[in-house]
Amino acid sequence: HINITLGSLLDDQHWHSVLIEHFNNQVNFTVDKHTHHFHAKGEFNYLDLDYELSFGGIPVPGKSGTLSRRNFHGCFENIYYNGVNIIDLARRHKSQIYFVGNISFSCLEPQVVPVTFLSSSSYLALPGTSGQEEIFISFQFRTWNKEGLLLSIKLHQASGGFLLYLSDGKVKISLH
């Protein structure tokens, strides 16, 4: 009996990858590019799968599994077993695949459309509105540069403004 644990913060609503490779007694278990290599003890030269392979839960009563009451709730993509696309077989309702419970061939998630600024003279501009008492701004970014202006707001009165920028690889805020 072998228990291996890999991964952390896997409930962050981001995609995570899992790869299991079995060659004779050598097993490679990979989660998000972190791999644990181990040797299975005993006669483990082949996998004698007992009846079925289940993704997302243990649907058959009486099958072993300590998590049988806590089946997976989320999305799977790119499920391959020995090179066979399992999701494609399920979508085409092939007889070797069956469903238990409600599933959908889509995954609800916010549509993210990134924008790339190709030069230091590129930017997006949004017309300002006067008389607002509060603003709420959120965004994600990634860059390889340690310096750069992320957001600037000019205030209507006098020469005031708001700057959000990268300096020495840190996010800084300046309000005038």
Automatic annotation (TrEMBL):
SUPFAM superfamilies registered for this protein in UniProt: Concanavalin A-like lectins/glucanases
Pfam families found in the cross-reference section: Laminin_G_2
InterPro entries linked: ConA-like_dom_sf, Laminin_G, Neurexin-related_CASP
Coiled-coil annotated spans: none
Organism domain of life: Eukaryota
Domain Laminin G stretches: 1-107
Database matches in PANTHER family: CONTACTIN-ASSOCIATED PROTEIN-LIKE 4, PIKACHURIN-LIKE PROTEIN
Record's protein name: Contactin-associated protein-like 3
